[in-house]
Amino acid sequence: MELRERIGAALKDAMKSKDTERLSTLRLINAAIKDRDIALRGEGEGGDAAVGDGEVLAILGRMVKQRQESARAYEEGGRLELAEKELAEVKVIEEYLPRQLNEAEVSAAIETAISEIGADSIRDMGKVMAALKAKYTGQMDFGVVGPKVKARLG
Fold first, then answer.
1. Could you tell me which residues come within 8 angstroms of residue 95 by beta carbon, excluding any fewer than 6 positions away?
2. Which CATH number characterizes residue 11's domain?
3. Which domain holds residue 148?
4. What are the strands, taking DSSP E only, across the chain?
5. Which of 82, 115, 121, 145 meets the CB 3.0–4.6 Å disulfide criterion with 74?
6. Over the stretch 24-65, which tens digit does the pLDDT of each residue have?
7. CA-CA distance, 71 to 29, in Å (whole number)?
8. In terms of domains, do 62 and 27 share one?
9. Which pLDDT value is given to residue 45?
10. C-alpha distances in angstroms, 17 versus 9, 13, 21, 22, 31?
11. Exposed/middle/buried for residue 12 (C-beta within 10 Å: 0-12, 13-18, 19+)
12. Among 74, 94, 114, where does a domain finish?
Protein backbone atom coordinates (compact mmCIF):
# COMPACT_ATOMS: atom_id res chain seq x y z
CA MET A 1 0.00 0.00 0.00
CA GLU A 2 1.24 3.45 -0.91
CA LEU A 3 2.22 5.67 2.00
CA ARG A 4 -0.49 8.21 1.18
CA GLU A 5 -3.13 5.50 1.23
CA ARG A 6 -1.85 4.19 4.59
CA ILE A 7 -2.13 7.68 6.05
CA GLY A 8 -5.65 8.10 4.62
CA ALA A 9 -6.74 4.74 6.05
CA ALA A 10 -5.27 5.63 9.45
CA LEU A 11 -7.12 8.95 9.32
CA LYS A 12 -10.43 7.14 8.79
CA ASP A 13 -9.65 4.69 11.59
CA ALA A 14 -8.83 7.55 13.97
CA MET A 15 -12.15 9.20 13.08
CA LYS A 16 -14.07 6.00 13.75
CA SER A 17 -12.30 5.35 17.05
CA LYS A 18 -12.63 9.04 18.06
CA ASP A 19 -8.88 9.24 18.82
CA THR A 20 -8.72 13.05 18.66
CA GLU A 21 -4.97 13.48 19.28
CA ARG A 22 -4.01 10.96 16.59
CA LEU A 23 -6.64 12.39 14.26
CA SER A 24 -5.29 15.94 14.55
CA THR A 25 -1.74 14.78 13.78
CA LEU A 26 -2.90 12.73 10.78
CA ARG A 27 -4.81 15.76 9.51
CA LEU A 28 -1.65 17.85 9.79
CA ILE A 29 0.23 15.22 7.76
CA ASN A 30 -2.52 15.15 5.14
CA ALA A 31 -2.55 18.95 4.92
CA ALA A 32 1.23 19.08 4.43
CA ILE A 33 1.01 16.52 1.63
CA LYS A 34 -1.85 18.40 -0.07
CA ASP A 35 0.08 21.67 0.24
CA ARG A 36 2.97 20.04 -1.63
CA ASP A 37 0.54 18.73 -4.29
CA ILE A 38 -0.75 22.27 -4.81
CA ALA A 39 2.79 23.64 -4.98
CA LEU A 40 3.67 21.07 -7.65
CA ARG A 41 0.65 22.08 -9.71
CA GLY A 42 1.73 25.70 -9.39
CA GLU A 43 5.19 24.79 -10.68
CA GLY A 44 3.60 23.40 -13.84
CA GLU A 45 4.25 19.74 -13.06
CA GLY A 46 0.97 18.78 -14.70
CA GLY A 47 -2.70 19.08 -13.89
CA ASP A 48 -2.90 16.10 -11.59
CA ALA A 49 0.62 16.05 -10.18
CA ALA A 50 0.83 14.24 -6.87
CA VAL A 51 3.79 13.74 -4.62
CA GLY A 52 5.25 10.26 -4.47
CA ASP A 53 6.38 8.24 -1.49
CA GLY A 54 9.88 9.76 -1.55
CA GLU A 55 8.50 13.28 -1.24
CA VAL A 56 6.00 12.17 1.45
CA LEU A 57 8.92 10.71 3.43
CA ALA A 58 10.78 14.02 3.11
CA ILE A 59 7.69 15.92 4.32
CA LEU A 60 7.32 13.58 7.29
CA GLY A 61 11.01 13.96 8.13
CA ARG A 62 10.68 17.75 8.14
CA MET A 63 7.58 17.53 10.32
CA VAL A 64 9.44 15.39 12.87
CA LYS A 65 12.37 17.83 12.99
CA GLN A 66 10.03 20.80 13.43
CA ARG A 67 8.22 19.14 16.31
CA GLN A 68 11.42 18.05 18.02
CA GLU A 69 12.73 21.62 17.85
CA SER A 70 9.42 22.98 19.15
CA ALA A 71 9.39 20.45 22.01
CA ARG A 72 12.92 21.49 22.96
CA ALA A 73 11.91 25.17 22.94
CA TYR A 74 8.81 24.46 25.03
CA GLU A 75 10.85 22.49 27.55
CA GLU A 76 13.35 25.34 27.86
CA GLY A 77 10.45 27.72 28.36
CA GLY A 78 8.89 25.54 31.06
CA ARG A 79 5.84 24.65 28.95
CA LEU A 80 6.00 20.89 29.50
CA GLU A 81 2.39 20.20 28.46
CA LEU A 82 3.06 21.70 25.03
CA ALA A 83 6.35 19.80 24.74
CA GLU A 84 4.53 16.55 25.50
CA LYS A 85 1.95 17.32 22.80
CA GLU A 86 4.72 17.92 20.24
CA LEU A 87 6.47 14.66 21.20
CA ALA A 88 3.17 12.75 20.95
CA GLU A 89 2.81 14.09 17.39
CA VAL A 90 6.37 12.94 16.63
CA LYS A 91 5.44 9.39 17.67
CA VAL A 92 2.45 9.35 15.31
CA ILE A 93 4.47 10.76 12.40
CA GLU A 94 7.34 8.30 12.97
CA GLU A 95 4.94 5.39 12.47
CA TYR A 96 5.06 6.22 8.75
CA LEU A 97 8.81 6.67 8.51
CA PRO A 98 11.17 3.76 7.89
CA ARG A 99 13.45 2.62 10.71
CA GLN A 100 16.32 5.06 11.28
CA LEU A 101 19.80 3.70 10.59
CA ASN A 102 22.24 3.55 13.48
CA GLU A 103 25.77 5.03 13.39
CA ALA A 104 27.41 1.85 12.05
CA GLU A 105 24.79 1.45 9.32
CA VAL A 106 25.16 5.11 8.30
CA SER A 107 28.95 4.75 8.08
CA ALA A 108 28.58 1.55 6.02
CA ALA A 109 26.08 3.27 3.69
CA ILE A 110 28.49 6.18 3.19
CA GLU A 111 31.38 3.83 2.40
CA THR A 112 29.22 1.83 -0.02
CA ALA A 113 28.02 4.95 -1.83
CA ILE A 114 31.57 6.32 -2.11
CA SER A 115 32.89 3.05 -3.53
CA GLU A 116 29.96 2.59 -5.95
CA ILE A 117 30.41 6.09 -7.35
CA GLY A 118 34.18 5.94 -7.25
CA ALA A 119 34.31 9.24 -5.37
CA ASP A 120 37.83 10.33 -4.50
CA SER A 121 37.56 14.07 -3.77
CA ILE A 122 35.29 16.64 -2.22
CA ARG A 123 34.04 17.49 -5.73
CA ASP A 124 32.17 14.17 -5.74
CA MET A 125 30.26 14.98 -2.54
CA GLY A 126 27.10 15.97 -4.44
CA LYS A 127 27.03 12.65 -6.28
CA VAL A 128 27.51 10.71 -3.03
CA MET A 129 24.78 12.69 -1.26
CA ALA A 130 22.40 12.19 -4.20
CA ALA A 131 23.01 8.43 -4.13
CA LEU A 132 22.41 8.31 -0.37
CA LYS A 133 19.22 10.37 -0.65
CA ALA A 134 17.91 8.16 -3.43
CA LYS A 135 18.45 5.02 -1.39
CA TYR A 136 17.98 6.12 2.24
CA THR A 137 15.37 8.92 2.24
CA GLY A 138 13.69 8.96 5.62
CA GLN A 139 16.22 6.58 7.15
CA MET A 140 19.01 9.00 8.00
CA ASP A 141 19.44 12.64 8.90
CA PHE A 142 21.23 14.18 5.93
CA GLY A 143 22.17 17.23 8.00
CA VAL A 144 24.38 14.89 10.05
CA VAL A 145 25.46 12.73 7.10
CA GLY A 146 26.70 15.66 4.98
CA PRO A 147 29.60 16.58 7.27
CA LYS A 148 30.55 12.89 7.59
CA VAL A 149 30.71 12.51 3.82
CA LYS A 150 32.71 15.75 3.58
CA ALA A 151 35.18 14.55 6.23
CA ARG A 152 35.55 11.20 4.48
CA LEU A 153 36.18 12.77 1.07
CA GLY A 154 38.15 15.79 2.30
1. 10
2. 1.10.1510.10
3. 103-153
4. none
5. 82
6. 999 999 999 999 988 888 776 555 567 888 888 889 989 998
7. 18
8. yes
9. 55
10. 12, 6, 11, 10, 21
11. exposed
12. 94
